[in-house]
Amino acid sequence: MTETAPDSDEGLAPSARPSARWRVGLGAAIVLAVLGVGVAVVAGILHSGGGLETVAAATPSGGSAITPAPTTPPPSVIVHVLGQVTAPGVYELPPGSRIIDAVGAAAGFAAAADQGALNLAAPLSDGEQIYVPKPGEQPPPAASTGAGAAPAPQSGGGAAAAGAKVDLNTATLEQLETLPRVGPALGQRILDWRAQNGRFATVDDLKNVTGIGDKTFADLKDLVSAG
Fold first, then answer.
1. Where are the alpha helices (DSSP H) in 116-209?
2. How far apart are CA 188 and CA 195, in angstroms?
3. How, if at all, do strands 77-83 and 89-93 pair?
4. Which among 173, 167, 192, 82 has a CA at the least distance from the CA of 131?
5. What is the mean pLDDT of residues 222-226?
6. Which domain holds residue 140?
7. What's the rounded Cα separation, in Å, for the pair 128 and 150?
8. Mean per-residue pLDDT for 218-225?
């Protein structure tokens, strides 16, 4: 009777059976291959990430933005307001101010002011003199009414620079102050002398005003008249 070969491996010699070690080694190789691929991917990410980190380090962050250099504010303008205003004087105004702002700084027009004699919308310039006249009165040559730039005073004084003379018999205190060496005190003494004596008969009468010596008279004689 012929024996039938067994279907299982039980009858095989140990050398003919599939090796358990071989099966374990194949699984380990697959695991190692997968790990190797993963390591390569991680290394690539780290490599590219390092480049991004370098770029990020060179770029200012939102918390350390470059602060722009501070800008210098425009300078203010200083003007001298005279004539028929409530409070004549020197005033400092913001840049871009106009003649109406200068009049406002001087507390507004006086009752006798000829408001139509000035261009109230004209812009101011630093060092400008604004004169508000009475009706029919001519502003001193060195003053501005907004019709154009005021004449630049020369060493001989504002009146001489404009080619006009200040009439000693009609001049206001503000007009007298446009003359060289004449301030508020000396200008008032000229007015007081005129009030006491009626009028200046000649320019030489200026020598009779207290405080006007030979040098001051020499500076004034060609700039005034006794009309």
1. 158-161, 173-176, 184-197
2. 10
3. antiparallel
4. 82
5. 92
6. 75-150
7. 7
8. 92
The C-alpha atoms of residue 144 and residue 118 are separated, in whole angstroms, by: 8
The 10s digit of each residue's pLDDT in 98-107 is 999 999 999 9
What pLDDT, in 10s, does the model give residues 133-189?
888 777 776 666 665 444 434 434 444 444 578 999 999 999 999 998 898 999 999
CA distance 222 to 203: 9
Q: From CA 182, how far away is CA 190, in angstroms rounded?
A: 10
Which residue among 134, 150, 166 closes a domain?
A: 150
**Any idea how long the chain is?**
227
Query: Domain for residue 57, yes or no?
Result: no
The last residue of one of the domains, among 116, 132, 150, is 150
Are 225 and 167 spatial neighbours (Cβ–Cβ below 8 Å)?
A: yes
Together in a domain, 103 and 168: no
CATH of the domain at 210: 1.10.150.320
Assess whether 126 and 111 both reside in one domain. yes
141/172 same-domain check = no
C-alpha closest to that of 154 among 221, 223, 204:
223
Model's pTM, two decimal places?
Answer: 0.38
- Integer Cα distance of 8 and 78 in angstroms: 117
Domain match, 100 and 132 both: yes
Query: Which distant-in-sequence residues (6+ apart) come within 8 Å of 107 by Cβ?
Result: 85, 86, 87
Residues 172 and 205 grouped into a single domain: yes
The tally of domains found in the chain comes to 2
